[in-house]
Amino acid sequence: MKIFSNRAFLIFLLLFGIQGCGFKLRGSQPLPAGIQQVYLAGSQEYLPLNRTVKEHFDLYQIPYVANIPIQQKDTTLAIYLYPDSLDRRLLSLFSTGQVAEYELVLTIKLQFILPNKEPQMVEFDVTREYQDDPDAILAKSRELDLVLREMRSQAADRIVRMLPSLDSREL
Predict the structure, then answer these.
(1) Is the pLDDT of residue 105 over 90?
(2) pLDDT-derived band of residue 8, with 50, 70 and 90 as boundaries?
(3) Looking at domain 29-168, what is its CATH homologous superfamily?
């Protein structure tokens, strides 16, 4: 019985220490102080990045609205997503001179608009290496779609992780 109580005490002490240092599970952080919901807008509402960000809001249980009601204007964070852009940088060539490998760079540009504060522009890149094979064009086309989807998912994760720190720092 004494062994059990020592283990329980050590587990309690460990959990208390972790909680005391401010540790929180990823994704469990709330929205900025005073913000109850997010309004997501963009120049083209149905772009893949907009859909991916909305999916991540659902995943992390972040409330979002389709438009900002007048009475909730002071408790709503607006995020304006600009269309993303994809660039390819040449990394290597085959001996025949054909491209063997690219670096894909997805540039994300967005603007956070907090109530009663100046809008904050943010721009960041998500990069991946992509190996090209001219003999498997159809398979590589499908692989490129999957890589782009993964890059947009990583960008959406990064946007969600930025939310808790918006009111406490300049981006």
Answers:
(1) yes
(2) confident
(3) Lipoprotein like domain (3.30.160.150)
pTM above 0.85, yes or no: no
Domain ranges of the chain: 29-168
d(CA 48, CA 57): 14
Q: Please report the pLDDT score of residue 116 as a whole number.
A: 84
Q: Where are the beta strands (DSSP E) in the chain?
A: 37-42, 64-65, 76-81, 85-93, 99-113, 120-131
Pairing between β-strand 99-113 and β-strand 120-131 as defined by DSSP bridges: antiparallel
The pair of structure tokens assigned to 43 is 């120049």
Distance CA 127, CA 142 (A): 18
The amino acid occupying position 1 is M
Distances 44 to 26, 47, 50, 65, 96 between C-alpha atoms, Å = 30, 6, 8, 16, 41
How many Å apart are CA 121 and CA 75, to the nearest integer?
20
Spell out the residues 6+ positions from residue 110 whose beta carbon is closer than 8 angstroms to its own. Answer: 79, 80, 81, 82, 121, 122, 123, 159
Integer Cα distance of 156 and 151 in angstroms: 9
d(CA 68, CA 75): 10
Angle value at C-alpha 155, between 136 and 132, nearest 5 degrees: 15
Q: Is 52 left (phi over 0), alpha (psi -120 to 50) or beta?
A: alpha
